[in-house]
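pinned: reference chain
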Amino acid sequence: MDSLSYKTTSITPEQIEHKWVLIDATDLVLGRLASQVAAMLRGKHKPYFTPNLDCGDHVVIVNAERVRLTGNKINTHTFVYHTGYPGGQRERSAALILEKNPEQLLENAIRRMLPKNKLGHQIISKLHVYAGEAHKHEAQNPQPLAL
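pinned: its C-alpha cells
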C-alpha cells in the first residue's frame, strides 16, 4: 500500500466554501434550533470540518418571534446579566425578551453554544436573525432549509 493514503489532509482557508441558508423559526423549539444552527455556523456538518478554521455557512433566521419554548419556561426562565456598575445585576424573563426583542433571545442561545474566543466572534458574525418574514439577504440567494 501507498503510505500517502494514510495521511490526514487539512483544508486551507482558500478551499472553504461558505453557503447561505435560510431557516424559518416558526414553531421550532428554541434550544434544539440553537444547537443545530450553532453546528452549521461552526461547519460541523461538512466533511472537511477543521476545528481551528471558520468553515461554516451563513445562516439567516426569519420569524424569530414565533420560536417556541417548552413547558413553562416562557414564564419561569430568567436571564441574568450585569451592567458593569456596582449593584448592576439585572434579570429578565424569557417572555419579556421575546416581547421586546425576539432576535436577542435566539442570538444569545446560539452565541452561548459557540467557542468563547476570536474564532467564536468571527463565527457569530455569520448569523443573521430577523423577527419577521422580511430579510435583506435576497441578493445572496439563501437556500431554504427545513429543520
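why pinned: The mean pLDDT is 94. The chain has one domain: 17-144.
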